[in-house]
Amino acid sequence: MTSPKIGKRRKAADTPDAFIWEAGASRLLPVRKVASLPLHLLKGIDSARDTLIENTRRFADGLPANNALLWGARGMGKSSLVKALHTQVNRGRRGASRLVLIEVHREEVSSLPLLLRRLRGEPRRFLLFCDDLSFDKDDTSYKSLKAALEGGIEGRPANVLFYATSNRRHLMPREMMENERSTAINPYEAVEEKISLSDRFGLWLGFHNCAQDEYLAMVESYAAHFGLQIAAENLHRKALAWSAGRGARSGRVAWQFIQDLAGELGKKIGG
């Protein structure tokens, strides 16, 4: 194992709060700075934000908490929320009480049982995060995820929680489920195992496309936070033209517009 000893006592400055799991090398790659936005900048997702941050705080405090699936429209802040709340929850915490975020790439899901065995017994608490999770036909790696969420005969380690984002509520494409139903002797049993994967998540948090007012609120919030000097009427006009060109309104589109506007105004902004 070439990654840092997470459980050993180290100077606070030398102890990362985030890692990327590299299954091929069986190591955790330290991430010194997580690319996250301040939580207050994430607009239009108040209910999901409040539910998830409370769940995360309970887990960080050693209390029972649920695995969470954040599903729904693209670009509406699912992954941004996970990274932002990790930063928020860690404020004021020291040493082993700080929550560790571990990113698990979709292609590494089959190695989750190995990672869980490694984390079991560590003094710190770990939030495993898989972005844009979904499974296609003939993909059997979902079985490893089910085992990780349930924990098998050992049970899921008490110091590990799993958050995933997906555009699909059941993590499987609709046509795949319908095809299996139409060709199976018992169509409901044929897909029950795969659909039941999402049932392993105690929290289902839906993210939906935003209305124009919500989109403009996101743009205004970003502009104010980064000190972009522009009249509100002009800001709205440019933002709406940008979204029309993209054919969508979302938090991601709002952020991309702000980056373009900042460049136009000659203003440097942080990520």
What does this structure look like?
With 271 residues, this protein is of the alpha/beta class. It folds into two domains: 12-207, P-loop containing nucleotide triphosphate hydrolases (Rossmann fold, 3-Layer(aba) Sandwich), CATH 3.40.50.300; 212-265. It contains nine helices and seven strands, in the order E-E-H-E-H-E-H-E-H-E-H-H-E-H-H-H. The chain has helices at residues 46-60, 78-90, 112-119, 142-150, 174-183, 187-195, 212-225, 232-246, 251-265; strands spanning 18-22, 27-30, 68-72, 100-103, 126-130, 160-166, 203-207. Strands 2-1-4-5-6-3-7 form a seven-stranded mixed sheet. Helix 1 crosses helix 2 (78-90), helix 5 (174-183) runs antiparallel to helix 6 and helix 8 (232-246) crosses helix 9. The protein is globular and about 60 Å long. The chain starts with 17 loop residues before the first strand and ends in a 6-residue tail after the last helix.
Question: What's the short story on this structure?
Answer:
Helix content is 40%, strand content 13%. It has nine helices and seven strands.
